[in-house]
Amino acid sequence: MALPPRLTALVDSTRAPVAHMTTRRSLENLVAETESGDGQLKRAVGATQLTALGIGGTIGTGIFVVIGEGVGKAGPAVVLSFALAAVACMFSALSYAELASSIPVSGSAYTYSYATLGELVAWIIGWDLILEYGVSVAGIAVGWGGNWNEFLDSTFGWQMPDAIAKSPEDGGILNLPAVFIVLAITLVLVLGVRESARVNLVMVGIKLAILVFFIIVAFANFKSGNLHPFAPAGRDGVVGAASLIFFAFIGFDAISTGSEEARNPKRDLPIAILASLAIVTVFYVLVSLGAVGLASADQLSGSDAPLAAALDDGAGITWAASLLSFGALVAITSVCLVILFGQTRIFYSMCRDGLLPKGLARISPRFGTPALLTVMLGLLVAILAALVPLSEIVKLVNIGTLFAFVLVNTGVIILKYKQPDFPRAYRVPLNPLLPLLGIGFAIYLMTTLEAQTWIRFIVWLIVGIVIYAAYGYRHSRLRSEPERAAGPIIE
């Protein structure tokens, strides 16, 4: 039975916003937009620089600190925990590789969700990534400040006064070293992606050289007796440590945020994503094996600087603290650079799509970067790092990353069935089995997080939905340029 005209109009007016929110960006338009040449990001980096970005964004305080925490849970079997965490990341890495090479557009999981799951889901993951990357950079910068003081103390026997080296929560006035490193990295990012990639490549070379030195010394002084008992807590200890260690692998996904600046994205992006994860895994396994062979589990788990403690106790290298403090300093700097780079590119993509103010997406004709946006985000992160206590909020980084992994794996499955003929330079093998495994690992690890972390995450998403309803929905380019839509996902 036909509805009265007024009631039909009311139903249609209710359906329209829902249809718009489930509308996808056209894959063809997404790719074509980046090739127009007018006011776009410069394609300036190759596979080597992209791989270095992945390594730079991954190897940080995790390898220098988290080994001790992992050993406390799993004993010498922490080596297996690193391998298990790598496998958990591998499934998501395969999905990132397919989407990054097929949709070589800045924005990472935000853009992929826009093309596969629709505008509302894209906004949610973009809003999630803003929190993940922004809080992550601030937390990393605070860690840089602490390691800077440790380096000064171990090398010169002097530290900066607490008033200018710690946040108010920790008894200081402001964390000046954290502000300095954020502003310095912001300047490098403004100058250009090529310059940023070169700086990161140098830092990656330095920290890998220090880790190679550790591995050589460790295996030259290896004590097999330290491996017994190998797994004192059994399987539960190995899995528990893997849940903790998983977050030492986060960072390879930042490569995809630079898709639009890759010279040959269809070839270079899959190589960079998979190669960086493989290289990081090899280093993590070798370093962890060397550490448990150099020192006992008790020595490692009881130290704030487990690698330095292993060199000191196991090899008698007393100057190890200075070397490892310097290595940690360089490692954290490169992580901060890569993650802040990813933050600016995600924000840029959301501004370009009209979900946030478009004026912020302007590209500097001199530097070929979103300079205004980069400076704005750099200042906000610097203020956060200087003043705000981050001990609890940083946990949001974990849930945000895992949520992105779920959506990226889901996007690969949807593309397989929705657009099977869309050209792909790389395809995930055994799709949908491997993406489903990636989703399963991510959801399992999300269930291990604290209830307070979930509450904060949900509150942040609610705030984001309010902003989308008040601004993003009305200003989206899909409202003013409907030809960019590919139609609702559910027809």
TrEMBL record:
<feature type="transmembrane region" description="Helical">
    <location>
        <begin position="429"/>
        <end position="447"/>
    </location>
</feature>
<protein>
    <submittedName>
        <fullName>Amino acid permease</fullName>
    </submittedName>
</protein>
<keyword id="KW-0472">Membrane</keyword>
<feature type="transmembrane region" description="Helical">
    <location>
        <begin position="200"/>
        <end position="220"/>
    </location>
</feature>
<feature type="transmembrane region" description="Helical">
    <location>
        <begin position="271"/>
        <end position="297"/>
    </location>
</feature>
<dbReference type="InterPro" id="IPR002293">
    <property type="entry name" value="AA/rel_permease1"/>
</dbReference>
<feature type="transmembrane region" description="Helical">
    <location>
        <begin position="371"/>
        <end position="390"/>
    </location>
</feature>
<feature type="transmembrane region" description="Helical">
    <location>
        <begin position="453"/>
        <end position="471"/>
    </location>
</feature>
<feature type="transmembrane region" description="Helical">
    <location>
        <begin position="317"/>
        <end position="342"/>
    </location>
</feature>
<feature type="transmembrane region" description="Helical">
    <location>
        <begin position="74"/>
        <end position="97"/>
    </location>
</feature>
<feature type="transmembrane region" description="Helical">
    <location>
        <begin position="50"/>
        <end position="68"/>
    </location>
</feature>
<keyword id="KW-0812">Transmembrane</keyword>
<feature type="transmembrane region" description="Helical">
    <location>
        <begin position="240"/>
        <end position="259"/>
    </location>
</feature>
<feature type="transmembrane region" description="Helical">
    <location>
        <begin position="173"/>
        <end position="193"/>
    </location>
</feature>
<dbReference type="Pfam" id="PF13520">
    <property type="entry name" value="AA_permease_2"/>
</dbReference>
<keyword id="KW-1133">Transmembrane helix</keyword>
<feature type="transmembrane region" description="Helical">
    <location>
        <begin position="396"/>
        <end position="417"/>
    </location>
</feature>
